[in-house]
Specification:
Length: about 260
Amino acid sequence: MLVLSRGRNDKVVFPTLGITVEILRVDGRNVRIGIDAPREIRVLRKEILEKADAAAPTKGAQQATDGLTHAARNRLQKAMLGLHVLQRMLDAGQANDAEPTIFTIFNELKSLEEDLVPTRGSPIALTGGGKGLRALIVEDDANESELLAGYLRLRGFKVTTAVDGLQAMVFLSKHNRMDIVLLDMKMPRFDGNETVAAIRLNPDYHGLKIFAVTGADQVESAVGIGPRGVDRWFRKPIDPGLLVDAIHDELAANAFSTLASTTAK
């Protein structure tokens, strides 16, 4: 395990990824972290990122991640989620509680780098709230699930997690309707394809929003996008801020459609 204290000038270098992370200053509840990365890696402050174009990732970033294995995508996803959670924690004045998240980020980057060393061909490029909204995360990787859940909670969501589709279906049958299901596709016992099919066949869940959040390719998974499949497909690594924006967009569009239908009657 990679261990880093919160001392000033502590530095971790990931030479294969071309990334250096350094703690520049610790001042009470404030921690200033510096990130040095290649030019093609986007490192933006939150307020700048929120003003950026929320369209698909840039062509360069997409090409850089196309060759990643499913495991590498998951590691990169956890590191990116950790960075966003860390930003939210620091914004909320929770710096004293941020150390486990910092460790998670560094450990995932270190593991990713070690995975890439044997097959490295070229450098890799990284690429308002949901108050009251209920989200169910279905993900078999506990660390990734908790990081995404933590980020969504910091954005105001009420979050429940399930380790696979079977646990998710049991939860849905016993609780009030969720607003959104965030679903990994590759899981043991009851995978994403089976979960989508089970939800769509049950009239009690008609219109329930499902977002695929997965390292799997949508075409290879043979899951359609639409009323009989998932509503949107997000391939890891993802920006959780853009995921939250997409949830709001989808739910707002659904509410408008429902209102229009009711008015027409």
